[in-house]
Design brief:
Layout (H helix, E strand, L loop, with lengths): L1 H18 L4 E4 L9 H10 L5 E4 L12 E5 L5 H20 L3 E5 L11 E4 L2 E13 L16 E13 L3 E6 L4 E8 L2 E6 L16 H12 L12 H25 L1
Parallel strand pairs: 1-2, 1-3, 3-4, 4-10
Antiparallel strand pairs: 5-6, 6-7, 6-8, 8-9, 9-10
């Protein structure tokens, strides 16, 4: 009986871990500036097929079991980004407070977008562009493998900067305004950005190894240092469960014969 209980618990724990392993990337229907930076970053960090691509029309994002969500409201996706946050600001804060990891990034390029905009957590995003940036702490892990942390550049590296108490600044622009920051909140962790992250690693006017920095930011935001193993197909999980139950039944049969 003890062996059966152990096998059942192992199968249950495995299935539970798989159910909550998928992260999500959320933006508009179209990618910001039609650049694939967000998609490529998620593929690099988590592996193709191991994450979900959603848009701001999905109202159940925060209750779908994700443990990491990357929101990008850059370019013409600003209105959808801001509407979603206005409608779910308390839910977003609760998601992080309960242990979730979140990255809220928006390089806004749209007339009429709200600025300053309340991101929640006591933080606001303010419109203000910059072509260059530098690391607040070049030894921080997001700069690992990135060659020039004090000379980060792009053809509009950022469109927004961040203000608010409780922020730990990670990157500042040419006017020493924070354009990437983090915060521990409740049991979870949240990052904020005003970066044109869709262009990182995709365009010649950004640092040659900016894709490394982009991937590092996503990896750190998700609080994961390794790419997770491929998620088994549902049929594989079922077969594993049947096999474990069969092994348990065989063990019980042998035990009953001995008695």
């Amino acid at each position: 009986m003890k062996k059966f209980s152990l096998l059942f618990f192992t199968c249950f724990a495995l299935c539970s871990q798989i159910a909550f392993a998928i992260p999500a990337y959320v933006t508009g229907v179209n990618e910001p500036w039609n650049e694939p930076g967000g998609i490529n970053a998620m593929n690099d960090v988590f592996g193709s097929g191991n994450w979900d691509r959603l848009d701001f029309s999905n109202s159940g994002i925060l209750t779908a079991g994700y443990d990491f969500i990357y929101f990008d409201g850059g370019d013409g996706n600003a209105a959808g980004f801001q509407t979603y946050i206005n409608n779910h600001r308390n839910d977003i804060e609760n998601f992080v407070a309960n242990g979730g990891s979140l990255f809220l990034n928006a390089a806004i390029w749209q007339g009429g977008a709200i600025s300053p905009f309340n991101l929640g957590f006591g933080v606001s995003s303010v419109y203000g562009t910059s072509f260059t940036g530098s690391a607040v702490d070049p030894s921080h892990e997001i700069y690992s493998g990135f060659s020039t942390p004090n000379n980060i550049y792009g053809d509009y590296l950022s469109h927004n900067y961040l203000i608010g108490s409780g922020l730990s600044s990670l990157m500042v622009d040419s006017q020493n305004r924070t354009i990437l920051a983090e915060m521990n909140y409740g049991l979870g962790h949240v990052m904020f950005g005003g970066l044109t992250l869709a262009f990182f690693g995709e365009h010649s006017l950004w640092n040659p190894d900016s894709g490394v920095l982009r991937d590092n930011i996503i990896r750190y935001a998700a609080k994961t240092n390794t790419v997770p193993a491929p998620v088994p197909e549902p049929s594989t999980i079922i077969l594993m469960g049947i096999g474990l139950i069969g092994m348990a039944g065989y063990g019980r049969k042998r035990f009953s014969k001995k008695v």
